[in-house]
Amino acid sequence: MKHLYHLILLTVLFSCSNNKTVPIPKNEERAPTRITKPEFQTILDSADIHGAILIFDSEANEYYSNDFAWSEKGQLPASTFKIPNSIIALETGVVASDSVLFKWDGEKRAFKVWEQDLLFKDAFKYSCVPCFREIARNIGVNRMNEYIAKLDYGNIQVYSTNIDLFWLIGNATITPFQEIDFLKRFYDAKLPITKRTEKLVKKMMILKESPTYKIFGKTGWTMDDNKNNGWFVGFVETKNKVYYFATNVEPNSSFDMDLFPKIRKEVTYQAFQKMNIIDTF
User: Are strands 229-238 and 118-119 parallel, antiparallel or unpaired?
Assistant: First the structure.
């Protein structure tokens, strides 16, 4: 029996040594490659801002950025949180659909475009802070914390004292890498949410469409502690690929702040062009 056991063991070992397609265990999958793009830095320098543009090619398993250290820094999520906030609102039934109407109370608001009744999809499009503060209060502290944990979004703790402002002021943070991780799980249908919610939120995120690409995204802007910080996150569908992006930037002292609402998108689109992701914008 002992000789038979040794014979069987040798046969198994020989068989395995000739197997040319031994799968790599999941915990040993190749880590994404990081490729520094100096041309991204040139884009930011020309725009008189500083920060990082981070792009992920999931098919090639490659990250591209001008500053990977910045991409690992946590920042307030600002209105990029409207993506998970919308998901949570739909999943909890606080908002029934993208056509729910938010009535303007007639009070003066920070932007003229917010001073009107807005459908939910338009409140998302125009980044209506009063609308989403109302949504957050209706979701409540317990459900908000529960869903943030389920979605594995950033480093955020919600309390009764900050339920309707935590994404704009305070200690909540998310990094550009974490933004992309969340967006990839969202796009790949790996979040614990319904297909209906996924479809509605993706539809609300559409920013640009052309015959060769479609851009989905959300901007964000915080002014906490006298510091302006801006986001633009999302993903680009091309004919045969999906790219994920998270741009986080701050203005230089000489920057014209009237340009800040547009500059976050413009520098990102320029980076897309440098990588031949899009042709024109």
Answer: unpaired
Mean pLDDT in the chain?
92
List 17, 58, 71, 79, catalytic entry = 79
Of 236, 263, 252, which Cα lies nearest the Cα of 50?
252
Residue 38 lies in a domain: yes
Query: Does residue 63 sit in helix, strand or coil?
Result: strand
Find residue 60's DSSP bridge partners: none
Task: Assess whether 79 carries a catalytic annotation.
Answer: yes
pLDDT confidence of residue 280: 79
Nearest to 109 by CA among 119, 121, 123: 123
- What is the pLDDT confidence band of residue 142, given thresholds at 50, 70 and 90? very high
CATH of the domain at 243: 3.40.710.10
Domain assignment present for residue 24? The answer is no
Provide the number of structural domains found in the chain: 1
Average pLDDT of 161-166?
A: 97
Asked whether 136 and 144 are in contact (CB, 8 A), the reply is: yes
Tell whether pTM > 0.70.
yes
Q: Domain of residue 148: give its range.
A: 30-274
In a domain, residue 184? The reply is: yes
Structure tokens at 32: 């994404």
Residues 6 or more apart in contact with residue 183 via CB below 8 angstroms: 83, 233, 234, 235, 244, 246
Q: Has residue 196 got a pLDDT over 70?
A: yes
DSSP string across 234-276: EEEEESS-EEEEEEEEEE-TT--GGGHHHHHHHHHHHHHHHTT
8 A C-beta contact, residue 131 and residue 102: yes
Q: What is the pLDDT confidence band of residue 28, given thresholds at 50, 70 and 90?
A: low
Using pLDDT thresholds of 50, 70 and 90, give the confidence band for residue 81.
very high
Q: Is 166 inside a domain boundary?
A: yes
